[in-house]
Amino acid sequence: MSHQPPDPRVIVSGMLGDERLLRALADRDMGTVFRMLNSRGVSTRRLAAAVDITQGRLYDYMNGKSRVEKLTLFEQIADAFHIPGHLLGLARRSWEPAAVVTEHQRTGHPPPDGDDLAAMDHFRNADRQTGGGRLYGAVVRHLSDRVAPRLVDTASSPQVFAAAAALTEMAGWMAHDSGQDDLAGRHLARALPLARTSGDLPLAAHVAASSSHLALQTGDPVAAVEWARTGLELATQGPRIPALTARLHTMQARALAAAEQHAPAARALEAAQRDLEGGADAEHPWLSPFDAAALASESALILRDLERLDDALQHAEQAVALRETGRARSLALSQISLVEIQVRRRELDAAVHAAHALLSTSPTLGSIRVVQQLDELRHLLEQHKAYRPVPEYLVRFDDARRARMLLLADLIPPSPGGTPA
Prior knowledge:
By secondary structure, the chain is mostly helical. 67% of the residues lie in helices and 0% in strands. Residues 98-111 and 415-421 have low confidence and may be disordered. InterPro entries: Cro/C1-type_HTH, Lambda_DNA-bd_dom_sf, TPR-like_helical_dom_sf. This is HTH cro/C1-type domain-containing protein.
């Protein structure tokens, strides 16, 4: 029986979870895409013929001498290799199955556009695994090319404003994950009025929760408390979504704990636990999930700040155990919290053991936020260098950090002096 050449569409289908491919698609780096397909057995002749270019032009793309720039060629590549349109900032392709959209009757709003919702879900799933730095540009392009033009169309439904709000909020998270908090704040500031214009109060509350988180991360617990309170007020005016109010109470608890308001923080955390245990009364298409793993992760941080380290350890261990392998960033952040709490409890053997496991967690993860928290963890461990396993671990940590920073060099924002931070 004759050997059949590999079908590039089948190869691409099997690579859609590959971080390098997702990063190349997000960056519209077609040279890397062509090289990856070629390395998996697709001949350059077949690659060139599939997208109707000469082999000479293909070699220029593969060697980095030129880049694909024309929209029509991106569309030809997507269609030839069955690359989902949203991964290249394109509309859903004609061969892609239409997204199944559930009627959200409890919200009182029509269902969102299937293309927008499918793009949101794909961006969200990729972000969990690869980090926001790798996807930020693709989300912004999707917003500007596919969503923004419809905002000025008088025939557009309010759901267009909801899609714009949700994707703008996502862009804010990705900017935060990339270490660009000022940019993240600007995105979130735009997302809230878009959500209000859509009439989607749960979405507006969701944006307020993200604003609370960002305020806390930038050292303003007072603003974080106010944003959480605003979100809870918005949430009570819409359909009951326990996961949303649980997230808002959690943000409120974190901010209060950071402000050393221990009793109110404990009450807010209890309210979050009650909300999440109360079950889901309504679903919402635009809200990112807030589940038991997320609550456990946040609870560990709250209880740490409340100086309840035994309880904090229990929740940190639960968060690591609940995190799925596909949630690389969440797993890394939960592991960092676990090590930190073990160090604070002076359980140095357990801390070093968990810290070694942490170094092998997604070294290519495009998250500057994870790098920053790793650096904070290193500073904490350094205070215990008298214990011999700690300095031995720090040598390995520094080697792993150098390798990680080389892989993330393209994502690190320039410092005011013009050199990478």
